[in-house]
Amino acid sequence: MGEHAAVEKVENPVTVDRIAADLRELGVEAGDTLLVHSSLSELGWVAGGPQAVVDAFQRVLTGEGSLVMPTHSTQYSDPSVWSNPPVPDGWVPQIREGMPPFRPEVTPTRGMGAVAECFRTYPGAKRSRHPLYSFAAWGAEAVDIVADHPFEDALGEASPLARVYERDGKVLMLGTEYETNTSLHLAEYRGEFEKERVSEGAPILQDCERTWVEWEDIEVNSDDFTEVSAAFEEACPDAVVEDEVGAATAKLIEQPALVDFATEWFSENR
Q1: Checking DSSP bridges between strand 170-174 and strand 33-38, what pairing results, if any?
Q2: What is the pLDDT of residues 153-211, one digit of tens each?
Q3: Domain ranges of the chain
Q4: Stated pTM of the model
Q5: Could you say which of 4, 39, 128, 239 is the most buried, measured as most Cβ atoms within 10 Å of its Cβ?
Q6: Mean pLDDT over residues 40-68, rounded?
Q7: Are the beta carbons of 269 and 69 closer than 8 angstroms?
């Protein structure tokens, strides 16, 4: 969505004050642990862009809360498995040898949206060390949420997703759908169904030198996320609050309830 369309979505500019008020009305509270998936364009025309959105989150949560966002950088994956788009076979060794190492402080996100890309650069934001599936966090428990993020099983029991779960966190989908809700991946790891493991790799800095590292993980699949989310909302209506933030449809979800339901659903349906 371009700026002309964003202007047309709202009668007045969307400001920090308005976003903060809408978030409180939705149910976000000071001290919450909040995992956010967002689409800036869905909010309408925001005065200050993504910075205004991050400022509003921080104002509402206060320093007693914790703000978390996925900051994935899948452009650092093994180019031999790229499909969207694929690259010529002859490029693969050149890309593997030529791409710089993942560095949490500077490596940009891919496909995470303007708000997450802005958030990762904020003073006090901490980013986990995973070269493909990192998360950034700010606030009272930011360090603990992103610490010791293993390469293997990146969205599983030792991930920031599980740290949010342990803190009875909330998930905010701000103009986004369940297809991008990373908490459902945690349920994939916990579900009792046959899983395939795949090899992954990326360049990192190790002892101040660029090193290509490899590890194994489960093959995640979001094809049925829409189906499981519909079943979740029907079965657990009290765990989801829907309203508008700016011009965006927003859903505030109890993350443990979502993960627990999806874990059982995957076990029965996959």
Answers
A1: parallel
A2: 999 999 999 999 999 999 999 999 999 999 999 999 999 999 999 999 999 999 999 99
A3: 3-269
A4: 0.95
A5: 128
A6: 97
A7: no
Cα–Cα distance for residue pair 135/171, rounded to 1 Å = 14
The values of phi and psi at residue 82, to 5°, are -65, 140
Phi, psi of 53 (to 5 degrees): -65, -45
CA torsion angle 221 222 223 228 (round to 10): 120
Amino acid at position 251, single letter? K
Do 22 and 245 touch, CB atoms closer than 8 A?
Answer: yes
* pLDDT tens digit sequence for 78-131: 898 888 889 999 999 999 999 999 999 999 999 999 999 999 999 999 999 999
CA distances from 168 to 35, 104, 216 (A): 11, 26, 29
DSSP code for 65? S
Half-sphere exposure in the Cβ direction for 201 (13 Å, CA): 16
Does residue 172 contact residue 119 with C-beta atoms inside 8 Å? no
User: CA 93, CA 31: separation in Å to the nearest integer?
Assistant: 47
> Taking Cα atoms as reference points, which of 216, 263, 205, 210 lies closest to residue 236?
263
| Residue 251 near residue 13, CB atoms below 8 Å | no
Torsion-angle region of 70 (φ positive above 0: left; ψ -120 to 50: alpha; else: beta)? beta
User: HSE-up of 61 (CA within 13 Å, CB side)?
Assistant: 26
Query: Taking Cα atoms as reference points, which of 177, 193, 142, 156 lies closest to residue 33?
Result: 142
Handedness of CA 259, 261, 263, 266 (dihedral sign): negative
| Contact present, 100 and 120 (Cβ < 8 Å) | no
Region 5-16 average pLDDT: 84
Q: Which two tokens stand for residue 205?
A: 């800095």
Which H/E stretch holds residue 144?
Answer: helix 142-146
Give the angle 249-255-260 at the CA atoms, nearest 5°. Answer: 125
